[in-house]
Specification:
CATH topology of the largest domain: Jelly Rolls
Largest sheet: 8 strands, antiparallel
Number of strands: 22
Strand content: 35-45%
Number of domains: 2
Shape: globular
Distance between the termini: 37 Å
CATH superfamily of the largest domain: Galactose-binding domain-like
Order of helices and strands: EEEEEEEEEEEEEEEEEHEEEEE
Structural class: mainly beta
Helix content: under 10%
CATH class of the largest domain: Mainly Beta
Length: 334
């Protein structure tokens, strides 16, 4: 799926969405979702508007929408993050909510085992702030030293919010792993990040490290058809923790007439700022030599890997172009 440039923002280019549904996030409860279900808040795609679609309760909307409030009070919604972590920014997206958006919103957070109840102590991380209709409303968060597991979104007094996106870094308890245990160091659940790629015309780069196998061809990283050959496309990832790589999986699930013909993988030990200065000319070491790929197939590489020591970043090169569903990078913590 071609990416909508308006979907990206100053937060999504730096951090991941901790509140995305496919990462295990759940909408637990709300005060009212009469017109549109609370679960829509954490859907990954941008909200859509279908002019002629109605339900027995009124106009169908792709978001969370409460009734017009006729009594005192404000509406709220509680979300459990699938990836607990540190929050740097939020997007309270009111896409398509024009005459029915909330004029204001605030956000509270907590870190607890289990789920909130009447005794839970919440911390306000976003004070009551104005919202624009039909817009991505971006707010920086000041509580950057705290780890949070749950959020409570307040809207004043009622109305509709299309999406809640919560940008930050995953907090991983590395001490919970056993010495020598193989860990997918590239996984989003373990703090991995897809930093940059040269092309993602048909499929976003972040799909590479999402949980589970891809559900369809749109759930992967896919580039344009390359018309000037030879050539290759590439994608750079930061591992969640420095480690020694022992096993790699390149999964081309659902890519049948458009999988890459071959791939190589490189690695280095360094800092992200240095890598991003010039990703193609960084001090990469060959980790996996040129390897043939097949359509709709899980490729595993172990004996083929070179010993490059402890590394912090990897670079997947696909030759000449095409789609890869997932990249798994298993290693031992250094």
């Amino acid at each position: 799926m071609k990416q909508d440039p308006n979907y990206n923002n100053k937060f999504s280019s730096q951090w991941i969405n901790l509140a995305e549904e496919r990462n295990g996030t759940k909408v637990l409860d709300c005060s009212d979702d009469f017109f549109a279900e609370k679960e829509n808040l954490i859907k990954a795609p941008r909200a859509v508007f279908i002019a002629d679609k109605y339900t027995d309760r009124g106009k169908w909307m792709d978001g969370w929408e409460s009734r017009r409030k006729r009594v005192a009070g404000n509406d709220w919604c509680v979300v459990r993050l699938g990836l607990p972590g540190t929050i740097f920014g939020v997007d309270i997206d009111t896409a398509h909510f024009l005459g029915n958006h909330p004029p204001f919103a605030s956000l509270e957070a907590c870190e607890i085992d289990g789920d909130p109840d009447g005794t839970t102590r919440w911390t306000e991380i976003l004070e009551k702030s104005p919202l624009e209709p039909g817009s991505q409303n971006l707010f920086e968060i000041g509580s950057k030293e705290n780890r949070f597991t749950h959020l409570r979104l307040w809207i004043y007094p009622d109305g509709g919010v299309a999406r809640l996106r919560v940008y930050g870094e995953v907090s991983v308890n590395w001490k919970s792993f056993k010495p020598g245990e193989l860990i997918d160091l590239a996984s989003v659940a373990n703090g991995g990040k897809v930093l940059v790629c040269n092309d993602m015309f048909f499929g976003p780069k972040d799909n590479l490290i999402a949980p589970g196998r891809g559900v369809n061809m749109g759930d992967g990283w896919e580039t344009r058809r390359k018309r000037k050959l030879p050539g290759q496309d590439w994608c750079v990832l930061a591992l969640g923790h420095r480690g020694r790589i022992k096993k790699i999986e390149v999964d081309t699930a659902h890519f049948k007439g458009n999988f890459p013909d071959r791939c190589t993988i490189e690695a280095l030990n360094g800092d992200t700022a240095g890598v991003l200065k010039d990703p193609e000319k960084a001090a990469w070491k060959p980790l996996l030599g040129e390897s043939k790929l097949r359509a709709d197939h899980q490729h595993f590489f172990e004996k083929e890997l070179q010993d490059v020591g402890a590394v912090t970043h990897v670079k997947l090169n696909i030759i000449p172009d095409g789609g890869v569903s997932r990249l798994r990078v298993w290693g031992e913590l250094d």
